[in-house]
Amino acid sequence: MSKIQESLDAIGRFLDAADQSSTPAMRSVAEVYRAACVEVNARLGECRKLIDAGLLSEAERLNRRLSPSLTERAGMLDFPRCAEWCEFCRLYDWPSPPPIDRATVEKLAAGVALAADLNALVRRWRLVARDGGSAEKIRVLRQLVAADPAGSRVWKENLAEVERSRFAELLRDGKLAAEHGDVAELQRIYSELVSPELLTQPERGPLAELAAALAELQQKELRRREETLLDGIASAYSAMDRNALERKLEEWRILCSEPGFQPAQNGLRQVEDARKWLEECRERQERERRFSELEVQLTDELDNEAGLRSVESSFNMLMALDLPVSSRLVERVERYRESCLLAERRRHIRKCIYGIGGALLLVLLVAVAVRLVQNERESREAGRQMEELLAEKNAVGALAVYDRVRRDSPALAERPELLALRARAGKLADEFAAADAGFARLLERAEEALTPERVENSEAAELFRKLGSMAAGRAQPLLDRFDAADRKRRKLLEENRERRTREFRAASERIRRELERISAEIPREGSSLEHLEQAVRAAGEEFSTLLRNASGVADNLKQQQQELVNIAVGRADGALRTTAKLRSIRQRLTAPADFWSYAGALETLAVEAPSLADANRKRAAGLLGLWRSMLEQPVEAGILESPEKLKERLAAIPAGEAALPVALDLAKFAPPGIAYRDPVAAVKEKLDKLEREVIADSDLYELILADAAGGEYRFYSVTEPKVLFSSTGVAKSMELAVSLHSGQEGIPFYLQLWRTDGSEGGRSAYRFQPSSQTALEKLAFPKEFVELRGVDMKQPVFQKAAHYRFLARAAARLRDAKTLEEMERETGSLIRSAVENREMNPYMKVVAVKRLLELLRAFSFFYDVQLTDILYRLDRSNAGRNWNWRNPRELVDHPDEVREMEAALAALDVTRLFDEVRLYRKLWKTALLRKFQAVGTVEEKAGGELTLRLFAPVRFRELWVVDSVGKDKFRILCLPDSAAGGRIPEEFRRYCFPGQVLFAPVDWRSTGELAAAFRKEAAERGSRIDMWPQSWPLNRRGREDE
Question: pTM for the whole thing?
Answer without folding.
Answer: 0.51
